[in-house]
Amino acid sequence: MKEGQKLWSRDELILAVNLYCKLPFGRLHRLNPEVIHLAKLIERTPSSVAYKLVNFASLDPSLKARGIKGASNASKLDAEIWNEFFNNWDVLPFESEKLLAKIEHTTIEELNNIQEFELPKEGKTREQVVKVRVNQSFFRSSILASYNNTCCITGIQQPELLIAGHIKPWSIDEKNRLNPQNGIAINALHDKAFETGLMTITPDFKIKISSILLKQKKSKSIENYFLKLDNQDIILPSRFFPDIEFLKYHNEVRFKP
Q1: pLDDT tens digits along 188-244
Q2: What are residue 208's phi and psi, to 5 degrees?
């Protein structure tokens, strides 16, 4: 370590992983306003924060699978925090948002744009509602960032039209509710078809349309919005590829062949 540099703390690294998950891969640089903002919060330089984000990229298995190495100077603590986060998606995202709210000198509700009138007044119910809303916001941010705000089915790039859909449903797998490898960026129409089993994504990342829809060849809308997609490749994310086991689950359990 160079003279004058200070070691990164656990809290600082958790905040950096939080930001890593929310930024598209191509925006992990010192000129990004969000990188500059975090640097100011933790009293570091934007270059230092950007370099740490690239260190995390070197630990990201989805990038390794694509042959992208990132920086090669990740520390032992970098790896520990990454693994802690990566193996505890049910815990660490919310904890990182609480930490971010604290350092921003605000509440977690305000940080996540949760209006007071939307919440119960107090008690466990309020805490549960806040946690769910915060987690949903984090999941959406991480999925849209991974897919560069692009629908994996159609290529639509309008965030207002996109949903962070779950491959394995929220109600089925609590531990992986916030795992970005259990998510896809998808438009509302195809999300509904995916959710109800009228379409799926195969383990080799191809779109498969249910025979229920394939039989409706005379319907122009079904032809345009579904049949033309059958056996086409999805648009893959820049990181956090859909987990093969989650896709197998959807194909075998949710999909209506």
Answers
A1: 999 999 999 999 999 999 999 999 999 998 899 999 999 999 999 999 999 899 999
A2: -125, 125
End-to-end alpha carbon distance in the chain = 57
For residue 1, pLDDT beyond 60 = no
pLDDT band at 126 (very low <50, low <70, confident <90, very high): confident
Closest CA to 21 of 143, 132, 175, 137: 143
Length reported for the chain: 257
Pairwise CA distance, residues 198 & 138, whole Å: 27
Q: Compute the distance between CA of residue 168 and CA of residue 133 in angstroms, rounded to an integer.
A: 19
For residue 206, the 8-state DSSP code is B
**Backbone torsions φ then ψ of 163, nearest 5 degrees:** -120, 145
C-alpha span between 157 and 29 (Å, rounded): 22
* CB neighbourhood size of 147 (10 A): 26
Q: What percent of the chain has pLDDT over 90?
A: 70
Q: Return d(Cα 57, Cα 90) in angstroms, integer.
A: 21
> In angstroms, rounded to a whole number, what is the distance separating the alpha carbons of residues 163 and 190?
10
